[in-house]
Amino acid sequence: MTPHCFVTGTDTGVGKTLVSSAILFSLAASGLRAVGMKPVAAGVEQIDGEWINEDVLHLDAAGNVEAPLALRCPYLLRAPMSPHLAAHDEGVRIELPTLRSAYEALAQRADVVVVEGAGGFRVPLADDLDGADLAQALGLPVVLVVGLRLGCLNHALLTAEAIRARGLRLAGWAGSVVDPHMLALQANVDTLRARLNAPFLGVVPRLAAPDAARAARHLDLRVLCSDAALAA
Asked: Which candidate in 5, 26, 32, 38 is catalytic?
C-alpha cells in the first residue's frame, strides 16, 4: 500500500504540522521519496522580500522531494484567519480542481504525499467547499491529530465521526500535548484509545521547538504503511 495520507486535526494549533513533518521525516528516512502538501495556508510573514508560511516551510524541510511551491501550496493567503475569509479578502477563489491537480502532480514526483489540511476537518475553504470535501475528493486515508487539552474527547470523537461519515478511513490518530498541565492526561488518552476504534500512533509531548526528528521518536508509524523499509 502506498502510504499517502491526509492529516487533519481537532482544531487549529493542535500540532498537525509537527505530526505531518514527523511522518514525512520517517518515510524519507526509510528510503521513500516523500513530499508534504499544504493545499491552503493562511498566515504569512515577509522574509527577505518573500512571503513565507511556517507550516509550508516545515513540511518542505521534512520531506526529500523538490517541488514547486505552486504544487506544495496552491493557495498561500496572507491573513491568519479561516481560509475562506482570507481568500475573500484577497479576491481569491479556492477551487477543488486546482487542489486536486496539484496533488496528482506531486503524486507523480514522489512515492508518498502527506497532505496537511487547514484547521479542523470541516474548516471552510470557500462558500461551497470545506476541508472534508477536499479529503473526500482526494480519497486518502486520514490521520487525526488530537490536541490534548480540556475538551479534546468530544472534539476527537466528533471529528472521527465526521471522517467516517464521508466514507473515509481513519488510518490512525496521534495525540499532541497542547496543555502540558492537563489533568488526567493519560486517562484521556486511554479513553480515546478505547473509543476511537483506530490505530494509536502515539503522543507527541510539548516540545520547546518543533522538530520533526524528535517528534517522530514518539510515534509508531508502521501501521500507516506496509512498506518493508518503513516497517523495518
From this structure: 38
* Topology given in CATH for the domain delimited by 5-231: Rossmann fold (3.40.50)
Give the phi and the psi of residue 118 in degrees, each rounded to 5.
-95, 135
- Find residue 76's DSSP bridge partners: 41
Tens digit of pLDDT for each residue in 60-78? 999 999 999 999 999 999 9
Q: How far apart are CA 172 and CA 202, in angstroms?
A: 10
pLDDT digits (tens, 9 = 90+) for 19-37: 999 999 999 999 999 999 9
Burial grade of 49 (CB within 10 A; 0-12, 13-18, 19 or more): exposed
Mean pLDDT of 90-116: 97
CA atoms within 13 A on the CB side of 37: 28
pTM of the predicted model as reported, rounded to 2 decimal places? 0.93
Query: What is the amino acid identity at position 106?
Result: L
User: Which pLDDT score, from 0 to 100, does residue 1 have?
Assistant: 44
Q: Residue 225: which pLDDT band, with cuts at 50, 70 and 90? A: low
Domain ranges of the chain: 5-231
Q: Are strands 129-130 and 124-126 parallel, antiparallel or unpaired?
A: antiparallel
Distance of alpha carbon 176 from alpha carbon 19, whole angstroms: 8
The reply to whether 38 belongs to the active site is yes
The region, left, alpha or beta by phi > 0 then psi within -120 to 50, assigned to residue 153 is alpha
